From TrEMBL:
Organism name: Juglans regia (English walnut)
InterPro entries in UniProt: FucosylTrfase_pln (IPR024709), GDP-Fuc_O-FucTrfase (IPR019378)
A biological-process GO annotation: fucose metabolic process
Region (Disordered): 1-44
Any Pfam family the entry gives: O-FucT
GO MF annotations, alphabetized: glycosyltransferase activity
Domain of life where this protein originates: Eukaryota
CDD domains reported in the protein's UniProt record: O-FucT_plant (cd11299)
Keywords: Carbohydrate metabolism, Fucose metabolism, Glycosyltransferase, Membrane, Transferase, Transmembrane, Transmembrane helix
Gene label: LOC118348331
Gene Ontology terms: cellular component: Golgi apparatus
Protein name per its UniProtKB record: O-fucosyltransferase family protein
Similarity comment: Belongs to the glycosyltransferase GT106 family.
Length: 591
């Protein structure tokens, strides 16, 4: 059944008058992309079958039905109650009873107990060039599907103009741009350069051209989807030079191809221009091959960062390579999500005691206005921790990496916002890895001056430096690591070269006060090996049946875009593989 379009009369604030987003409930101010649509349920069918079963019992037992049926009903009731107790049992353990392993933060105690062993153990450090042992045998490279947009509509020319408003941070906006190109191709529409929605969380007023190279974007897509910088004068005049007067769709999350063709296309054809706002994950992953190819082309070729961002990012990568001369110019990048708003939103408890609780409560109230005080909201920090939802602290990241075998001479690039209580929380990480760098420590104040107050531009710098690292470490999930892992898979022969810690397992290990340093290292090396194995995984993709994100797992569909010459890297990247190898070779000669 096709979804009905939601077309709203515009108001003065740039959005339709309905406050309910396509992917969430009313009043949801979370900056996260819309959640996946719920799976279809067969509950009604089950209810009908149960009713039929009861009637059949009555017919089978006739007059003697009463006693036997009561016995069966009693048995079913007992089974139901026992099952309920099994489900509620683990939950009730957080309310009362013994605590479960890993439910409390004791990593600082573990560090204090093992620090002497950690400090003394640097003789068997892992070589960065030999971290990744698994190799992927890539299938023969085939040409990309014919991505010429709107083949079914070619005879009548373009249908009209498509305007999208991308919301969220850097990589959520990136997703929106790729999806916008795909939708434009699907509808044979002319795409207007996407507009970026200003959100009170990121507070970044940057426009498309501030972050990406507009001319390169238009030129790369020229033979596939026509892109223009603004609407024609006649259309602007028709809508009183106010973009909010354009007919607006609020598309549901993960909308299907059939929805766009059946509901959106007729309106576009009639009106000549439509606006999709907000627009993030509003297109299903299951799309025809030639439309999927547009996503690949946009993400890995058309979206090249602007010249100012690329120039500074080149300098940062070069400086990281120079500072990594001890390890042949190779370095580790860590995406650390331990900013104060992230810690507050997670509702996790660390080692700050009562003062931390008071501070976090104030931050939650200031940032989310009573969201965490609703009667229907149960906050269980212990449950969050053992289910892997708590951000890893800098101390935990350091212990994990030392346990995996990374020596104290390893250069680490920290991609992060302002760390919560940075002085206290970064101190143990610096003890374990003294060669710790950030964009703030690598760049001069003058170089970063023009980036202050622009969170997406700062995130773009982090993105490029992390993309060029030998090892990338993700600690909390989100759009940044998902896009980065996909980009690394695309560039590095299908291997993400990413450490993805099993946090459910890690929190249990970090609370085991009887564990020796040797036993801890064995566990961490096993976790590294698992990341290595998962790094080359490619999901099974049947025709129009993709269940995973093409941005995180770009193969096999994006394989056709990979350069046959391994010395060449696509123009979206900072350095080519050849350039990186040359600079690292110079570092080795110097040492």
């Amino acid at each position: 059944m096709a979804m009905k379009p939601k077309i709203h009369p515009p108001n003065g604030n740039g959005y339709s008058s309905d406050n309910c987003g396509g992917g969430g409930g009313c009043g949801n101010t979370s900056p996260s992309p819309p959640t996946s649509p719920p799976r279809h349920s067969h509950f009604r069918r089950r209810v009908k079958s149960k009713v039929h079963y009861v009637h059949s019992l009555k017919e089978s037992f006739g007059g003697g039905y009463g006693i036997l049926f009561r016995r069966n009903l009693l048995l079913l009731s007992l089974l139901y109650v026992s099952g309920l107790l099994m489900c509620v049992g683990p939950f009730s353990a957080f309310v009362s009873g013994p605590t479960l392993p890993g439910s409390f933060y004791r990593s600082h105690e573990m560090f204090g107990r093992l620090w002497r062993d950690i400090e003394a153990d640097n003789s068997s450090a892992i070589e960065l060039s030999s971290v990744w042992k698994f190799k992927r045998r890539l299938k023969e490279q085939k040409p990309c599907p014919n991505s010429t947009a709107g083949r079914r509509f070619e005879s009548s020319g373009p249908t009209g103009y498509l305007i999208v408003e991308a919301n969220g941070g850097l990589n959520q906006q990136r997703s929106a741009i790729c999806n916008a190109v795909a939708v434009a191709g699907l509808l044979n529409a002319i795409l207007v350069i996407p507009r970026f929605d200003f959100h009170n969380v990121w507070r970044d007023p940057s426009e498309f051209g501030d972050i990406y190279d507009e001319d390169h974007f238009i030129a790369t897509l020229e033979d596939y989807v026509k892109v223009v910088k603004k609407l024609p004068e006649a259309l602007m005049e028709r809508h009183d030079y106010n973009i909010t007067n354009v007919p607006t769709f609020r598309v549901q999350a993960w909308a299907s191809v059939n929805y766009y063709l059946g509901e959106v296309y007729p309106v576009l054809q009639k009106q000549g221009v439509i606006r999709l706002a907000p627009f993030a994950n509003r297109l299903a992953m299951n799309v025809p091959p030639h439309i999927q190819s547009l996503r690949c082309l946009t993400n890995y070729e058309a979206l090249r960062f602007s010249s100012p961002i690329t120039t500074l990012a080149n300098k940062l990568v070069n400086r990281m390579i120079e500072k990594s001369s001890r390890t042949g110019g190779k370095y580790v990048s860590v995406h650390l999500r331990f900013e104060e708003d992230m810690v507050a939103f997670s509702c996790c408890v660390y080692d700050g005691g009562k003062a931390e609780k008071i501070e976090m409560d104030l931050l939650r109230e200031k940032g989310w206005k009573g969201k965490f005080k609703r009667k229907d909201r149960i906050i269980l920090p212990s449950l969050n921790r053992i289910t892997g939802k708590c951000p890893l602290s800098p101390l935990e990241v350091g212990m994990m990496l030392r346990g995996m075998g990374f020596g104290n001479d390893t250069s680490i690039y920290l991609a992060s916002g302002k760390i919560y209580q940075a002085g206290r929380h970064l101190a143990p990480l610096l003890k374990m890895f003294p060669h710790l760098h950030t964009k703030e420590s690598l760049a001069t104040p003058e170089e970063l001056a023009t980036y202050e107050g622009f969170s997406s531009r700062l995130a773009a710098l982090d993105y490029i430096v992390c993309l060029s690292s030998e090892v990338f470490v993700t600690t909390q999930g989100g759009n940044f690591p998902h896009f980065l892992m996909g980009h690394r898979r695309f560039l590095y022969d299908g291997h993400a070269k990413t450490i993805m810690p099993d946090k459910r397992k890690l929190v249990v290990i970090l609370q085991d006060m009887g564990l020796s340093w040797k036993a801890f290292k064995d566990q961490m090396k096993e976790m590294l090996n698992e990341s290595d194995r998962k790094g080359i995984m490619v999901p099974r993709v049947r025709k129009l049946n993709r269940k995973t994100s093409v941005y995180t797992y770009p193969l096999p569909e994006c394989r056709c875009l990979q350069k046959s010459d391994k010395n060449l890297m696509n123009p979206n990247s900072t350095f080519s593989n050849y350039q990186l190898k040359s600079m690292r070779h110079e570092m080795e000669n110097q040492t």
